[in-house]
Design goal:
about 325 residues, mainly beta
Length: about 325
């Protein structure tokens, strides 16, 4: 009885601060963990450090939103990927004038006071707002004052503002204060995730694979982040055979294993990589140059895995036909 009464009292104390809190759906038209990934969460560290709502490192100092990313920059081209209203509301502000150029590029614009890039702000009433950042130039499909339903299209994911990868930054505000939708009832403490604003609740994934694939050369980081072709087959005179993995949320002492298996079941190559420090994104690649006149024809397989403390975090196997 004492325990039940205490819980009821705590909930009653918490409720007024979050009256009218919206139930949020995913603000991007993708399959979480398959075609999009949560790269970073709200920073709950009140000092100069950074920690996400699980006390983990998937954030950075003073980060105020949830970053849901695409694997490759090429995915913002063409039809693109839609940004969706996480809850019904009214468009209270927008901007659609900034180029899709990543920070660090020689042509990147000054984003001072415009870090959000192209974006939309929705008002949900009772002091609640959601802000959608880094949208594609010319893609915003709503106007100020327009009422939109949950799941309605707002525009497309882009690369505008203060960003280096294609994603939608969703910021949730209540009375102007940042609220972590994964951990809404505490502004600074972490570790407890019994309640969320997401409906249904979203799982925390502590890092993993964005993508993996074969190539016929050693790819550099820029080729990986732009998005190399995903090869299903190659000729038997290919100059080399390589297999790469593209990761997010790596931690120091993680272990990456990559292998290529030949049609006869033997390994063409196996390699293990120890991660030296926390890395928001990284790639690893292994392979061999062709030394025979032709590669043996048949089905090959590339496998990449990420382990942490001896526990498998993520793995992927990709087939390839050499003919």
């Amino acid at each position: 009885m004492i325990r039940t009464g205490l819980i009821a009292w705590l909930l009653a104390k918490a409720a007024p601060a979050f009256a009218g809190a919206p139930e949020l759906s995913l603000p991007i038209d993708c399959q979480l963990g398959i075609s999009c990934f949560i790269q970073q969460y709200v920073d709950l560290d009140p000092g100069n450090g950074a920690r996400d709502f699980t006390c983990g490192p998937l954030s950075y100092d003073k980060h105020k939103g949830t970053d849901i990313r695409l694997a490759f920059r090429r995915q913002i081209k063409g039809a693109g990927v839609r940004v969706l209203a996480a809850a019904s509301g009214t468009v209270s502000a927008l901007r659609d004038e900034m180029p899709d150029i990543a920070q660090g590029d020689s042509k990147a614009p000054d984003v001072t006071a415009r870090e959000c890039g192209n974006g939309v702000v929705l008002d949900h009433g009772e002091g609640w707002q959601t802000q959608y950042c880094h949208m594609r130039l010319g893609s915003i499909s709503v106007v100020q004052g327009q009422k939109v339903k949950k799941g309605a299209g707002l525009g497309l994911v882009g690369l505008s503002g203060n960003t280096q990868f294609p994603h939608i930054h969703l910021q949730v505000l209540n009375g102007g204060a940042v609220v972590d939708p994964f951990h809404p009832f505490s502004a600074t403490t972490c570790g407890d995730n019994t309640q969320q604003l997401w409906m249904p609740s979203l799982a925390y994934v502590p890092g993993g694979l964005l993508a993996a694939g074969f190539a016929t050369a050693a790819l550099d980081f820029d080729e990986i982040r732009q998005g190399p072709p995903i090869l299903a087959n190659v000729r038997d005179d290919a100059p080399a055979l390589t297999f790469w993995g593209y990761f997010y949320g790596l931690r120091a002492k993680d272990v990456v294993n990559i292998s290529i298996t030949m049609p006869n079941g033997e390994h063409l190559i196996r390699q293990s990589f120890a991660i030296d420090r926390n890395r928001a994104i990284a790639y690893r690649l292994t392979g061999k140059k062709r030394i025979l006149r032709r590669w043996p024809v048949g089905q090959y397989a590339g496998t990449v895995s990420l382990s942490r403390g001896g526990i498998l975090i993520d793995t992927r196997t990709v087939p390839l036909i050499i003919r």
